[in-house]
Structures are given as structure tokens and as C-alpha cells.
Amino acid sequence: MRVPPRLPSYLEPLLEGFRRGQTGRSVHLGHWDRPQAAGGERAEFGRAQARLDDLLLEMADLHPGQSVLDVGCGLGGTLQTINLRMSGMALAGLNIDARQIELCRGIEAAHGNRLSWEEGDACCLPFAAASFDRLLCIEAMFHFASRRAFFAEAARVLRPGGVLVASDIVASPAARELETPAFHVAASIDAGFGPWPDLWSHDADHRALAAAAGLHCTQWCDATANTLPSHRFTTPSRRARHDPGDIVANAALMLEWLHVNGHLQYLYLRFDKAAP
User: Fold this and answer.
1) Which of 23, 159, 162, 259 is deepest in the core (most CB within 10 A)?
2) Which fold has domain 44-273?
């Protein structure tokens, strides 16, 4: 009998908000070019999320007619952006959560593109070898059972000359000096935002993992400062923060604390597979 995957608790309010028309399809953090000038308007967060997409898609160097897989596609926001901008694309989204995949199917193909959506595991991709020109993995890798296994799968399904672009959240070097008990921090994050199997990034050397799979890291950008203002929008209200029984609110507050105090890094990454 198939065991249902464990899904993050924070998804429930996100899915409900989308169904009610209160939020868009983007479920990742945002990028602020001038983080010190970030305000507090909700619309500003949406623009920052779109800016993050723009930067990562620019790194991916997309061209009409390519095949693109978004691993951990969320509600399909990034593929929707590509669908509206590009033509003749074969666009595929994969997510382990059937509910998110069902909502993704509400996106209509445009400009001669083809859209497909698959329920599946990022560490065991349900696609043949050399199926895609580009892979995207935006703010999802830390949920996977193994970054190492994902890189191996990404290299397998990429065509020669293909590109993987990802954003990821990892523990910073400063996290090694954390005085707060590590088990307490990990338990709080895992309860509200887990699965997060490797919070302390013991197996998260992206360059080494990629190289072992046959991919070469060609871009590595620390965007921690640019994503930091997102917590003004993703962290619950002050009243919610004081509810000890709200595991999502407590985990969000712990995640913000880690980020603000320099214990987390937010990375933008590009990996290339050698051409024949």
C-alpha cells in the first residue's frame, strides 16, 4: 500500500488563500533589489516574488521551443510566467502534493506551448533520461529527502548542454555557533515547515553534489540580504506569534529569527551539463 507523503503544515493556509482568491500562484520568497527601502504593502511582496522569478529565469537562459521541468512547482506560478512570455515550449511541472498539481491544471496553455503536470518525487523523477533542456527548482530542495539524490536525478533527465537553475535555503557558517539547542530549533522548523531533513546542511555542498552527478556550477549567488524583507509578509501577525499551539506561526517566527540573525543563507544557483 502506498504511504502518503508527509506535506508541510504551512501549505494548508496557502492553498486555502489561493482558492479564495486572496493570494497568487507564487509561494516562494521575494527578491528586493534595494532591501533597505522595502515597505510593508502586500502588493510589494508580489512584485518581489515576480522579481525573484525574473532573475532565476534569466539565469536559465530560456529560448523558444525548449522543454522545461519545474521540480517542486508549487501552484505553477513560474511555469505560468514562462507560458505567457515564451512560445513553442514543452512545460512540465512536478510536485509530490496532488492538491497543488490539481490547482496547476487550471493554467491554460498559450502561444503554442504545451503544459503537463505530474505528481511525483523529486528524488525519483518519473521521466526518461535526457528529456529536458532546462530544469528549475525554486525554493523546494530543502524539502527533498536528499539533495544528493535530486542532483543525480536532475543530471539524468537533463539533455547534454542542459541547465539546472535553483534557489535553496541552507544553514550559514554562523549556524555552527548557535547557542540555542539545535534540537529545539530543528523540531520547531520541522513541525511547521517540514519535512526539512537536513536543516543544518550536513549534505548541502551544492558544487560537490552537482559535480558528483556530472553537473558544473556556473553561477552561485548569495541573495540572503535581498530575500530578508520577505519575512514582513510571511511571518504571522504579532497576535499569532503569541499562540504557543500554532505550530506554523511558531515555525515561521523561528525561521525569521534564524534568517535575521545570519544563520541561514538564500542561494541562487546554476548548473550546466556538458554538451556532447
Assistant:
1) 162
2) Rossmann fold (3.40.50)
